[in-house]
Amino acid sequence: MTTSISATGFKGGLGSSFHGSWGTSMAGEDYTMLAKSVPTQVRVGKKPIRLQPMMKNINEGKGLFAPVVVVARNIIGKKRFNQIRGKAIALHSQVITEFCKSIGADAKQRQGLIRLAKKNGERLGFLA
């Protein structure tokens, strides 16, 4: 006849009861055997799984100018398109810098305007 003792120390069905012996608990040999059976690295094929880069435009494909940008990128090629885009962004940053110099804005305000220009470019689809 098996007697169960609950976590509160009373006989009967109150609370959770313990059945079994301490020798089969996770603190014994079963834990060591279980730990050895779990693989430390999971691989698919010969190469480990690579995740997509995290720096991605969340508005990709959205915005008023996104279709034009995508068509232009497909026509002139990705490499040349990125070169032209980089030159345009650099030129726009220079215009913002000159504007800030003319109105007497400090570097912090200039940086804020450049960030705002990037955010607006994403929303309009220029960075699609």
Molecular structure report:
- By secondary structure, the chain is mainly alpha-helical.
- The protein is 50% helix and 3% strand.
- A two-stranded antiparallel sheet has the order 1-2.
- Helix 2 crosses helix 3 (78-103) and helix 3 runs antiparallel to helix 4.
- It is extended, with a radius of gyration of 32 Å.
- It comes from Parasponia andersonii.
- This is Protein PROTON GRADIENT REGULATION.
- One of its GO terms (cellular component) is chloroplast.
- GO terms for molecular function: electron transfer activity.
Task: Summarize the topology.
Blueprint: E1 5-6, E2 17-18, H1 29-37, H2 66-76, H3 78-103, H4 107-124
Antiparallel strand pairs: 1-2
Shape: extended
SS-based class: mainly alpha
* Biggest sheet: strand arrangement: 1-2
Helix content: 40-55%
Residue fraction in strands: under 5%
Largest sheet, in brief, is:
2 strands, antiparallel
How far is the first residue's CA from the last residue's CA?
73 Å
User: Element order, helices and strands?
Assistant: EEHHHH
Rg over alpha carbons:
32 Å
Poorly predicted runs are none
Helix segment count?
Answer: 4
Number of strands: 2
What average pLDDT do the residues reach? 74
InterPro entries: PGR5
GO molecular function, one term: electron transfer activity
Organism: Parasponia andersonii
Protein name: Protein PROTON GRADIENT REGULATION
